Inverse folding.
């Protein structure tokens, strides 16, 4: 699938428009890899895009961040200054980021991109489930924003973990109140039958209920059924895009989804 759509808007319409896509997911789900490969891919498509790192605890990144919070604060410095351990240092560093939002926003504006792909802290709960995440997202720009949430395929082949990720997405939605796009990361690790099964769960919840009843027992089954019912009441739709940074699976589809959500399907860069 390829994505190309001409715009009926004037050529200079996009000049002052900045779009932000925040990449969230559980630890190890592939946030940094997606940021790296998808940003490079977008550049090859001629898009004016930058990569932003908001993880002050990152030691090594698979991309060269155009804007990097570590230019202002590093976890190791916080640990040394306040005598904290790794977790305490990371929490304080994330809290301190709020004070640097204006600086980060100016850094992003200096590049003047049409789209910024924003890599968030590896420990998702520090950004997603504390008010600092929503405050940072709000402070970086007043323009269009969305969240890309990664379902880790290695875990989500299990219906219990799949349902728990549905719950996490719902919780993030209530915190950020931003449009969300779900991605099934590292999909190349799944066998063809597994990928079809997991994809089917989003298309027909009866298939997911069947997998829960067939493959889970005891408390895990009851908890999954209850969580699925609660998520169903919220009314969010889940259709994770099979995605692989190794094979470029899903790149066009994700690009089209982001364009649809942020730009009403118009291209970012004319």
């Amino acid at each position: 699938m390829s994505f190309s759509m001409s715009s009926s808007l004037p050529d200079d319409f996009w000049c002052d428009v900045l779009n932000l896509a925040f990449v969230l997911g559980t630890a190890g789900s592939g946030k940094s890899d997606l940021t790296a490969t998808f940003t490079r891919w977008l550049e090859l498509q001629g898009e004016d895009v930058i990569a932003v790192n908001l993880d002050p605890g990152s030691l090594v990144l698979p991309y060269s961040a155009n804007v990097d919070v570590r230019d202002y604060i590093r976890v190791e410095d916080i640990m040394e200054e306040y005598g904290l351990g790794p977790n305490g240092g990371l929490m304080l560093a994330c809290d301190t980021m709020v004070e640097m939002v204006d600086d980060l926003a100016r850094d992003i504006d200096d590049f003047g991109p049409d789209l910024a792909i924003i890599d968030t802290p590896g420990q998702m709960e520090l950004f997603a489930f504390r008010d600092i995440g929503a405050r940072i997202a709000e402070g970086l720009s007043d323009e269009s924003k969305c969240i890309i949430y990664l379902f880790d395929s290695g875990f989500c082949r299990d219906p219990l973990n799949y349902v728990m990720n549905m719950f996490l997405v719902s919780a993030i939605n209530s915190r950020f109140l931003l449009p969300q796009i779900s991605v099934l990361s590292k999909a190349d690790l799944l066998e063809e039958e597994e990928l079809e099964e997991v994809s089917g769960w989003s298309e027909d919840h009866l298939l997911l209920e069947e997998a829960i009843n067939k493959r889970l027992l005891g408390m895990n089954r009851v908890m999954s059924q209850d969580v699925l019912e609660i998520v169903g009441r919220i009314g969010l739709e889940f259709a994770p895009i099979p995605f692989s940074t190794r094979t470029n699976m899903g790149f066009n589809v994700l690009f089209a989804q982001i364009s649809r959500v942020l730009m009403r399907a118009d291209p970012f860069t004319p």
